[in-house]
Hints:
alpha+beta; Nuclear Transport Factor 2, Chain: A; 6-stranded mixed β-sheet
Amino acid sequence: MSTTNLQQRLNDLFGYIRQGKIVEAMSEFYDKNTVMQDNANPPTIGQAANIEREKQFLSGVKEWKGFNVTASAVGDNVTFYECSLDFIATSGQPVHMEQVVVAKWNNGKIVHERFYYDTGAKK
């Protein structure tokens, strides 16, 4: 996949996330055998398992407030982006997270994605 096409796929993914359509994004942009990993935690393997993981995350979200990409880059079947997420937790607590995401792509789908963030920053 050309870097131009990969950049378009990444931009499309951002559009889904901005709308809070994370589960729909999993179906559209992730390979059935995708591997996702938070920091140095054990990876979650497979699209179905990762959709369940995202549903668990979203069950703690009362209101999606924003997704802002501050930097991104596209290379040879790899994308990087720095972003912030803002939402209201079901407890009513506002949450602001900042992270870097590295994704490896194959045939227009994410096959491996890793999230890097400060676990102490979730306030």
